[in-house]
Amino acid sequence: GVLHRSWEENNMIKDVYNTYQIVLIGLGGTGGLLSTLLSRYIYDKSRQNNCSFALSLVDGDRVEEKNIVRQPFGKDDLNQFKSDSLCDAYSYLYGIDVSSVPKFIDTPEDIENIFNSIPYEQQWRYELKPHRIIIGAVDNHRARQVMNDYFIKNHCNDNSDLLYIDSANEFDFGTCICGYRMCDEIIYPPRAAFFPDILEDKGKSASELSCGEINISAPQHLVTNMTAANIIFSDFCNFVEEGTVSGGVTSFYPLSNTMVHRNIDVYGDCKSLTANYLHFSKQCSDRIKAGDTND
């Protein structure tokens, strides 16, 4: 399924002013590379007069020497918060609206607070159309649970929408999935609808882990991170420029130059899939809130 916004809703209409609030959560191998792409894109598009972009970089990790291999950091960044280092770099290089959030996300309210901290531009000559975009580039299922809860609970007003792009990968394989809701209706469900096991994960959140535990991660190939970042970036560009969102799952195997997008229809009726996803999400969320953290 590919959703197309109407021509009148796209950026080319003079009387509509689109604002894109982008919250990128996770600045590791995939998120760090993606942040560079987004910053360059925002710099280019900021010269238009009918849209604006605000980018928030979210990560509670600090830069280590091992990060320099796969992430956009140098030796001068060591021991600094990743979000601070990248925010300073992009502000200096591109002069864009970018902010640093050097913390881990533990609750849906954390995400809402980030969005609420982004000021709206007042454009009296235009109809304001705000778009919220969450991009998940994390390796922690508890963080995905928080983003999933926010996606479910966020009630867009009549003139706004929410795009949630999530990436997950192993050493040489990964998937990218777009969830999308327009106004108060879920058009395409996010990752948890296709991989419900992430909702049952009872591990610690990133903020509960020790530094040693955080730094233990499965090895990932640089080309896998680059491929994931490029797919997310492509989904982002299609949304901004064409008003399109692709429901379903994009799987990629970069070392064999293979990528497959399975349309949401392959997984069954979209409405039924969404209903089952919402029901299971509530069950899992209720169990976690009740303190059922034992197997």
Secondary structure layout:
Blueprint: E1 2-4, E2 16-25, H1 29-45, E3 51-58, H2 82-94, E4 98-101, H3 108-116, E5 127-136, H4 141-153, E6 161-169, E7 174-182, E8 185-188, H5 191-194, H6 211-214, H7 222-242, E9 244-246, E10 248-253, E11 258-263, H8 270-289
Parallel strand pairs: 2-3, 2-5, 3-4, 5-6
Antiparallel strand pairs: 1-9, 6-7, 7-8, 7-10, 10-11
Helix pairs in contact: 1-7, 3-4
Helix fraction, binned, reads: 25-40%
Oligomer: single chain
The largest sheet, given as strand count, sense and whether it forms a barrel, is: 9 strands, mixed
Model regions low in confidence, pLDDT < 50 over at least 5 residues: 210-215
In total, how many beta strands?
A: 11
Distance between the termini: 37 Å
Q: Structural class per helix/strand content?
A: alpha/beta
Q: What order do the helices and strands follow?
A: EEHEHEHEHEEEHHHEEEH
Return the average pLDDT rounded to an integer.
88
Report what the structure shows.
The chain is α/β, with parallel strands linked by helices. The protein has 8 helices and 11 strands. Strands 2, 3, 4, 5, 6, 7, 8, 10 and 11 form a 9-stranded mixed sheet that branches. Strand 3, helix 2 and strand 4 form a beta-alpha-beta unit. Helix 1 packs parallel to helix 7. The protein is globular and about 50 Å long. About 2% of the residues have low confidence.
